[in-house]
Structure formats: C-alpha cells, structure tokens
C-alpha cells in the first residue's frame, strides 16, 4: 500500500495512448463517417405530430407484449452471440477486429440507437434490437475471455481428435464459457429492462401506437396524469421481472454450474433454483432434457470447417507496422469530411458544450454513489452475518427494478436533477460491490485489527477502505454502464433541456437521423474517455497497491 499520490495521474497523462487504443477510435470515427455519408440525403421527418391516441389497453395484454419482447430479445442475444463468437473463433483476422469493436460497442449507450433503428426497422424489431444490444457484447466478450483461459491440455486433445473448427467451438469452447456467459447475462439484466421499457415508451411516441408494451403504457399514463395507472403498470412490471428472473435466469444460472471446474476451495455457495430442482425431479422434464441434449450433441457432431493442423503454423513474417497516430488521424479526417458534407458542422459547438455537461452529470452520479454506499456498506458489514446476507439479497433484488419507472414520481416530488435520477439506477450496483468487497475481507485481518484496538476513523483508514479499494474501483466499471444507458431519459426529465442526452432525445423525436448519429458518437466517445482515462487506470492502480 505504498506509492506517491501523483503516480497515477502522471501515468494517466504519459500513457494515454496505451489507455485509448487508436484502433478503437478509428472504428468509432469510421463507422460514424460511413453512417453520415449514407443518410446525408435522408430528410428530417418529425415523428411527434398531433395528439396521442386515447385507447386504453388491458394490463395483461401489455404484459404479454412486453413478455414477448423479452423472449424475442433473449433469443436474438443467443443467436447473435453464437454467430459472432463462432466467427471470431473460426477466423483469427475477424477476431483481431472484433476485440476493439466490442470495446467500442461496450461504450455505446444502447438507447441512443433507437432513432437509427426505427428509420430502418419496424417498431417491434427496433424494441427487440435495442434491448438485445445490452447483452450481446457481454456474451461475446465472455466467450472470448473463456477461450483465453482454455486449458492447453484440452486444446491438444481436440487437435489430436481432429476436431473441426465448428466441433471445437461447440463441444469445447462453449461448455467452458457457459458459467461466465450466464453470469454476465445476469449482470446485464438491469440494463436490459431499462432499455426495453424505455424503447417501448419512445416507440409509442414515434409510432403513435399504445400497444407497444408496459413501457408505452407507463409513458401514456404519465402524459395523461394518471398516477394510479402508473402504479398498476409498475406492479405488473415487477411481476414480469420476477417471472423472468425466477423462471429463466435463475434456472439457467443454476444449470450452468455443471460446467464450472471445481477448485480446491469453494468459498461461495453455488446458486440454486427451485424451478430447476423441480425440473430435475420430474420424469417428463427429464425426458425433454434428454431430447434436447441429443439434439445439441447431433449439432456438435457436424464437421464444418477443416481440422486444425498438428504441425505448428509457419510465420509468414511480420507485417510493417503503421505509425500509431496514422489510422486515427485518417479516420478523423474522414469524420470531419462526413460531418461537413452532411451539413452538421453548426451542431458541433453546441453538442460539445452539452457533452461536457453530461460528463459532469455522470461523474457527479458516481461520486454520490460512493458517498452514500461506502459508509453504509461498511456499517452493514460490521453487523451479524444473517443481517448482512439479508441486506445483500435486498440490494440485489432492488437492482433489477428499472429506475426509469421512478422518474415520473421524482418529477412530481420536485426532484428535477439529472444527477438524482441517474443515481436511482446506479447506486444499487455500487452497493452490491461494496457489500461483496467488505464481506471478502479476511477474518484474520479483522482479528489483527481487533487485537490492535483499531477503531473509528483509524480502522477505516488502515484496513477497511484499503481492503475494499480494488474491488470497489473495479466495480465502478460495471456501475457506470446503467448511467450511460439512462442518461438520455434522465436529462429529458429535467425541465431545462440540458445535456447531450436530452439533445439526443429531442433529435430522435425530431427525426434528424444525421444529428442523432453525431450526438451518439459524442456520447460513445465520452464513455470511452471516462472508462480508459479514469476508471480503468483507477482500478489498475488500486489493484496494484491494495490487493491483499
């Protein structure tokens, strides 16, 4: 736990090129430029004209529509993840491009894609794509991470058995990746619900259809000033969240444990699912599971591709390396040309000013989460284990609730601050991180601190804060994701339209696709800068100095 306080800021300033990859910037700039060149001739068609229809739809009808969107989104996630991850495992060149592309996709606020998708796809397809985007990059990244941890012995066995590329992917890499992918999917569920409900509400405004699901019904009730209707729909949404969590995610998470390699010490109990237990004890369900297993085995026996050669691959020679600044520089020039050709240069100064305000909202939200949960979480960790576990379960359950449903209530209460609205969705994840980090403090260190009679501020300074610092700083990387997802809606609820998120929402409702692309690119760039230049170095520095 040593080091100069200036070590990390100097390292950030001197190594910014390692923190921010030029390939990632090039991908972001080139994709934005191509999109602007494609849509430069598209007219801006306003989508909010006239009054909304006043047809009331039954609660169970809108619940069924939302449940259908959930099912289609999850199937889209599985299909797209298998397709992309399979291509990355089969073609190394595609994998080399995919890794920085996934890093850029992680920084894209998925809700900002709704206007672009709505210009191409129908309303239901747009809702499904926006909701699925919160999981696809997580699942694909988990598969690639699991491949990197694949045992060399298993790889040699697969090569010796002359497995093709498809067989190696389906029968070796996917089983190894199942525990990590299911865990990442569980982490993505809060952002999934936020994007799904917000997309349903925005598509109701854009298509003038009230039968788009629970999100559209909540927004329609808010515009009609029916608080009782909002409460009813919120209860239905809670029921849907519980149904999906207990009926889909928990059984899948419990089933995935069969693929987890056993370690010498099992510190945490494995998750259990009552539905999975009933499934395994029911003969018709066991018969169905056997049929599905045989089908998956049959798919895994397909000999697609060529077997991997046993001989080592010959190196064809190193290709000449381009200067680091050349590729980002060329892509930046292409972006400037595209912005000029689309007639959007007049929007750049105002968007840059709004982006600074949005960045301040996000940073203030993270600071507020830390100020609330660090002392609260450490105080809870000093209580009895039963109370700690109860609080941890309650916080995890609250994290699943979409905070966007509380925005109308906050507006009625006069809480018209974007920071407060963003805090409602992000602080639960920070609370989970703090509680888990405090629980992981070794009991031996606590006994030593008790023997030395460390109490109060001295105990926090010498033991508790340094002990939770690595996991806390790493958890901020996850906690900031829902903040960027909700920034567009949160800033729009503020009476004075402030921030790039509110600007992007007004452009979505105005039908200006080119302006949407520019604002979305700036939001993505802000997310990448905060992640690479602040949060990642902070996590690395904390891990190097304070890991026990």
Automatic annotation (TrEMBL):
The keyword Isomerase does not apply. Its main location: membrane. GO terms for cellular component: plasma membrane. It is found in: Cell membrane. InterPro entries: MetI-like (IPR000515), MetI-like_sf (IPR035906). Residues 355-534 form the ABC transmembrane type-1 domain. It holds the Pfam family BPD_transp_1. The chain crosses the membrane at residues 60-85, 97-121, 230-249, 325-344, 356-378, 390-409, 415-438, 463-484, 504-526. It is a multi-pass membrane protein. One of its GO terms (biological process) is transmembrane transport. Keywords: Membrane, Transmembrane, Transmembrane helix, Transport. The keyword Repeat does not apply. Belongs to the binding-protein-dependent transport system permease family. This is Transporter. It comes from Gluconobacter albidus. The lineage of its organism: Bacteria, Pseudomonadati, Pseudomonadota, Alphaproteobacteria, Acetobacterales.
């Amino acid at each position: 736990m040593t080091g100069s306080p200036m070590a990390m800021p100097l390292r950030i300033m001197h190594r910014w090129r390692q923190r921010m990859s030029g390939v990632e910037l090039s991908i972001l700039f080139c994709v934005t430029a191509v999109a602007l060149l494609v849509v430069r001739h598209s007219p801006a068609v306003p989508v909010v004209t006239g009054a909304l229809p006043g047809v009331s739809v039954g609660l169970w009808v809108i619940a069924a529509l939302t449940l259908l969107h959930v099912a289609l989104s999850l199937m889209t996630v599985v299909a797209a993840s298998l397709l992309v991850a399979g291509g990355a495992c089969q073609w190394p060149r595609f994998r080399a491009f995919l890794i920085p592309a996934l890093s850029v996709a992680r920084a894209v606020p998925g809700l900002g894609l709704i206007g672009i998708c709505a210009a191409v796809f129908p309303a239901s397809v747009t809702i499904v794509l926006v909701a699925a985007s919160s999981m696809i990059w997580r699942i694909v990244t988990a598969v690639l991470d699991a491949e990197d941890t694949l045992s060399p012995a298993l790889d040699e066995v697969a090569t010796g058995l002359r497995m093709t590329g498809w067989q190696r992917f389906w029968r070796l890499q996917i089983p190894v990746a199942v525990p990590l992918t299911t865990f990442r999917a569980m982490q993505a569920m809060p952002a999934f619900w936020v994007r799904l409900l917000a997309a349903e509400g925005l598509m109701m405004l854009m298509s003038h259809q009230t039968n788009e699901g629970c999100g559209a019904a909540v927004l329609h009730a808010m515009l009609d000033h029916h608080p009782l209707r909002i409460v009813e729909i919120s209860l239905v949404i809670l029921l849907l969240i519980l149904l999906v969590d207990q009926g889909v995610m928990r059984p899948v998470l419990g089933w995935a444990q069969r693929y987890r390699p056993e370690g010498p010490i099992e510190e945490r109990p494995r998750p259990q699912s009552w539905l999975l237990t009933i499934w395994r004890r029911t003969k018709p369900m066991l018969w169905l599971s056997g049929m599905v297993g045989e089908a998956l085995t049959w798919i895994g026996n397909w000999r697609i591709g060529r077997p991997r050669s046993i001989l080592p691959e010959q190196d064809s020679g190193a290709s000449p390396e381009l200067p680091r600044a050349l590729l980002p520089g060329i892509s930046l020039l292409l972006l400037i040309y595209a912005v000029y050709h689309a007639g959007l240069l007049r929007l750049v100064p105002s968007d840059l000013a709004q982006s600074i305000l949005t960045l301040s909202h996000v940073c203030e939200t993270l600071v507020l989460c830390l100020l609330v949960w660090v002392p609260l979480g450490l105080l809870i960790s000093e209580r009895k284990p039963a109370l700690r576990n109860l609080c941890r379960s309650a916080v995890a359950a609250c994290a699943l609730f979409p905070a966007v449903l509380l925005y109308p209530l906050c507006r009625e209460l006069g809480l018209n601050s974007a920071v407060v609205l963003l805090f409602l969705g992000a602080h639960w994840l920070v609370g989970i991180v703090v509680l888990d980090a405090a629980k992981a403090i070794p009991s031996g260190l606590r006994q030593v601190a008790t023997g030395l009679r460390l109490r109060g501020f001295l105990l926090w300074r010498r033991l508790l804060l340094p002990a939770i610092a690595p996991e806390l700083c790493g958890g901020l990387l996850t906690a900031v994701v829902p903040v960027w997802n909700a920034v567009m809606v949160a800033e729009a609820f503020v009476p004075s339209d402030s921030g790039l998120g509110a600007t992007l929402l007004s452009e979505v409702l105005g039908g200006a696709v080119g302006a949407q692309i520019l604002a979305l690119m700036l939001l993505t760039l802000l997310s990448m800068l905060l992640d690479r230049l602040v949060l990642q170095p902070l996590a690395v520095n904390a891990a190097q100095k304070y890991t026990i």
